[in-house]
Design a protein that fits this description.
The chain is α+β, with helices and mostly antiparallel strands. Among the domains are: 38-176, Rossmann fold (3-Layer(aba) Sandwich); 204-297; 430-514, 2-Layer Sandwich (TATA-Binding Protein), CATH 3.30.310. The protein is built from 17 helices and 20 strands. It has helices spanning 4-9, 18-35, 54-58, 94-101, 109-114, 129-134, 137-146, 162-171, 188-198, 212-225, 260-271, 281-291, 349-365, 401-411, 448-457, 478-481, 493-510; strands spanning 42-47, 82-88, 116-120, 153-157, 205-209, 231-236, 245-249, 272-274, 293-297, 304-305, 307-313, 319-330, 336-342, 370-380, 386-394, 414-416, 421-423, 431-439, 469-473, 483-490. Strands 10, 11, 12, 13, 14, 15, 18, 19 and 20 form a 9-stranded antiparallel β-sheet that branches. A hairpin with a 5-residue loop joins β14 and β15 (386-394). α10 (212-225) crosses α11. The radius of gyration is 23 Å and the shape is globular. The N and C termini lie far apart (58 Å).
């Protein structure tokens, strides 16, 4: 159960549901016998819904195509008796499905296709996918009819909210993910409370803020305590990929002003830059007032990195460090996730993994289940050591989930977080560079068929014999939005980056022909 301190902070959290809890217990009962057995006749229902604030979703270019990021989970079909049901807002181009099925080791595409069921809501509105499904009872019934045995089935989603819980109950299958009543632990406020409890350093700041008055007071305190502070970060509790953040610039405001909180409050719109390009300051504050959030100092450093640790807690309550990454951030103040390098820098890989492990153990004790990520900011010190600040917990899959899943499905290797090395069964090591944000107006008009043909003709596609090359995702976003995701797998970080650069050069070149 959550401690009293967390409960007091999470006043809006949902309550314990014994019916849902009993459903979730089925996972732990059947985990070893069914889930871990590659030859069990089981069903995985995949709902890749970004169940987030609608205004935030509107600000994400090609948001509906983010549902394609979890197509890597079609590689579950490498288990010859596993059935996969994949649900999306809009139909997925058949050539994209074929692209993934050709990657299955030891399984023919025909055999895999017989075990794959695709459903679509035929609805590209900005509502979350899961809400669309729940609003269509006939679709829910068709999904349920395709589940061969509810005792040997589970639901997997990008994140789990009350909508996903409602769908699980309707389908009578458990979710391999966190109970929505615990989601507060993954908010910006909840994350800081956990970090501070464990004694893990965080940027100087204030959590559990409710409105612009509290934001102004917090910004004033930061400036008074640190007169040289030039900027701070305002974060909604439930942002996504930095889209719920804003940067506050102090400008020529003086920390000695007794009326500093009021001055900041009056000038807040003028000094604040919202990260999401399509969200106004007024809209940002309206959302902040609904969900609350935090204010933190903007961490500076001549050499600064943004590593992350990915963890998993399985239904037996066992914790695991899955991977570490160095994130590539862009946008206003470097707040938007663009891509990542795997593994993280060996200089601090083990250090952040150890902190991640202690956080995972705390979350396990609170009942958390499934995959989640922990973000850090790391600053290099004059003596060449690194100082790490924990930033947030994401109790969901994230931008670094699908690249690592692709690597693991394709190469069947293991990551040793203590050494910071990913090794395959043949003893070779692999790295990758991944990005969800390869975007250019020049790429608009390149269809999925075009992309796959271009990559094949230029020997760029992932090669199973070499276990290197480029994997594409969000392919459906390319023609309309000029946007695509890539996972570039190499023997070294340099080779992975070379694959990435070749991909960009090739797309730039080929975009002139259509």
């Amino acid at each position: 159960m959550i401690t009293d301190n967390y409960l007091n902070a999470a006043s809006g959290a949902s309550h314990f549901d014994p019916v849902f809890n009993n459903l979730q217990e089925r996972l732990s009962r059947n985990y070893i016998e069914h889930y871990m057995d590659d030859l069990t006749d089981k069903t995985v229902v995949i709902v890749p819904s970004l169940t987030l604030d609608r205004e935030i979703l509107k600000s994400i270019k090609g948001a509906v195509h983010y549902e394609e990021r979890m197509l890597c989970m079609l590689l579950y079909l490498r288990m010859p008796r596993t059935h996969v049901i994949y649900v999306t807002s809009a139909p997925i181009e058949e050539s994209i499905i074929d692209y993934y099925l050709t990657l299955l080791p030891g399984i023919t595409g025909y055999h895999a296709r017989q075990r794959l069921t695709l459903f679509s809501c035929y609805d590209t509105s900005d509502k979350s996918l899961t809400q669309k499904i729940v609003d269509r009872p006939r679709l829910v019934q068709r999904i349920r009819e395709k589940i061969r045995d509810v005792e040997k089935a589970h639901l997997t989603c990008f994140n789990v909210t009350e909508y996903e819980k409602q769908l699980a109950l309707a389908l009578n299958i458990p979710i391999y993910g966190c109970d929505p009543r615990l989601l507060y632990l993954g908010t910006k406020t909840g994350s800081r409370l956990i970090f501070k409890k464990l004694g893990i350093p965080v940027p100087t700041g204030f959590e559990n803020l409710k409105n612009d008055h509290e934001i102004a007071t917090a910004l004033a305190k930061l400036k008074i305590d640190n007169p040289k502070l030039e900027k701070a970060v305002i974060k909604m509790n439930d942002g996504f990929s930095g889209e719920g953040n804003a940067i506050y610039y102090y400008g020529d405001l003086k920390a000695t002003d007794d009326k500093l909180p009021n001055v900041i409050l009056q000038t807040l719109p003028l000094h604040t830059k919202v990260v999401a390009e399509h969200i106004s300051f007024i809209a940002f504050m309206s959302q902040f007032n609904e969900m609350g959030g935090i204010v933190e100092e903007f961490v500076l450093g001549d050499v600064k990195e943004s590593p992350s640790v990915q963890c998993r807690i399985n239904p037996l309550g066992q914790t695991e460090i899955i991977s570490t990454h160095d994130q590539l951030l862009g946008g206003e103040g470097g707040q938007v996730f663009i891509g990542a390098t795997f593994p993280a820098n060996k200089a601090y890989n083990a250090d952040i993994a150890k902190m991640g492990n202690s956080i995972a153990e705390e979350l396990r004790s609170l009942g958390v289940l499934g995959r989640f990520g922990i973000d850090f900011i790391s600053v290099k010190q004059p003596d060449n050591t690194w100082q790490h600040f924990a930033i947030e917990i994401n109790l969901r899959k994230g931008g670094t989930t699908h690249p690592f899943m692709m690597l693991q499905f394709l190469t069947n290797g293991e990551f040793n977080w203590k050494d910071g090395i990913y090794t395959m069964s043949n003893g070779q090591q692999r790295c990758y560079f991944a990005s969800d944000n390869v975007v250019s107006e020049k790429y608009i008009g390149i269809t999925p068929h075009d992309l796959i043909e271009i990559a094949m003709n230029n020997h760029l596609l992932y090669d199973g014999s070499k276990q290197t090359g480029v994997m594409f995702h969000m392919i459906g976003a390319l023609s309309q939005h000029g946007k695509i995701g890539v996972v570039c797998i190499g023997k070294t970080n340099d080779e992975a980056r070379e694959f990435y650069e070749r991909t960009i050069q090739l797309l730039d070149k080929e975009s002139t022909y259509h």
